[in-house]
Amino acid sequence: MRRVPTAAAVAAWLLPLAVAGGGAAGGALAADMAPAGDPVSRGAYIFQAAGCLGCHSNEKEGGAPLAGGRALATPFGTFHTPNITPDPETGIGRWSDADFIRAFREGLRPDGAALFPAFPYASYTRMTDRDLLDLKAYLFSQPAVAAPNKPHDLTPPFSWRFLLPVWQWMYLTPGPVPDDPAKPPAWNRGRYLVDALGHCGECHSPRTLMGGMDAGRYLAGNPDGPDGDKVPGITGAESKGIGDWSDGDLTLLLETGLTPEGDVVGGAMGEVVRNSTSKLTADDRAAIAAYLRTVPAKD
């Protein structure tokens, strides 16, 4: 009998969910496969694929969209997401294109200080310049909201910003990853969606003692995910992954939130489906499935 994960097991599924040598970067393919249009329209699609709305909106307390203030509890303390509206005083309204790209690519603020990796720039660094600038165009088209950022509540030494360059040296490899010419276009697109835009590994991979992703346990699940929730594995393992899911199971969940057993996911995954994966093209959901089917099983 096929093992069917429960709705709770998949509730955290895909939660916050430039050019290099050797071929076009996955995001160059992203520009070809995502809907065409002006930068704001393209940026709206990137915004949805990257899951920005959920993290940067304090919906439970009635906060304005993208004005920040959402608390994210982690083993290292509680982070409060920042205001990413174009307000010039409390948001990112004064950021130049170069500032925006550097934040995503190098994890640096406009003043040169390192950003805490609760902002998943170790994954977003893989985005192309075009996708980043389209995303910025969309964000700057949204209403500006004056909402001061809340300070983080972190435990030392994780609160010491001066140590972040060491963390970045250990865990940040700046720049997009070239497409694999031996793989079909859909696989490369799926990898870009999973590893860059969707930043799935940030939640679905366990963390080291220093808070970096454990590359050896890529997508194998995380016992200490955001808000203390256990995040399931999404590798090809049948016992602790999605190895017995069909492509249709995967794409249906991403589109509608329906699990193979007929349940409807709620909580974190309900938010992801509502704000992100349901808004992707059918081809992009199929690309995600195609890539995930090839991730080696890890029990």
Structure description:
This protein is mainly alpha-helical and 299 residues long. It folds into two domains: 7-15 and 200-292, no CATH class; 26-171, no CATH class. The chain is 36% helix and 3% strand. The chain has helices spanning 7-10, 26-33, 39-50, 52-55, 97-106, 121-124, 129-139, 164-171, 185-197, 201-204, 247-256, 267-275, 282-292, and strands at residues 71-74, 77-80, 153-154. The chain has a three-stranded antiparallel β-sheet, with no helix packed on it. Helix 2 (26-33) crosses helix 9 and helix 9 crosses helix 13 (282-292). The longest helix has 13 residues, at 185-197. The two termini are 19 Å apart. The relative contact order is 0.20.
Sequence-ordered SSE layout with sheet pairings:
Elements: H1 7-10, H2 26-33, H3 39-50, H4 52-55, E1 71-74, E2 77-80, H5 97-106, H6 121-124, H7 129-139, E3 153-154, H8 164-171, H9 185-197, H10 201-204, H11 247-256, H12 267-275, H13 282-292
Antiparallel strand pairs: 1-2, 2-3
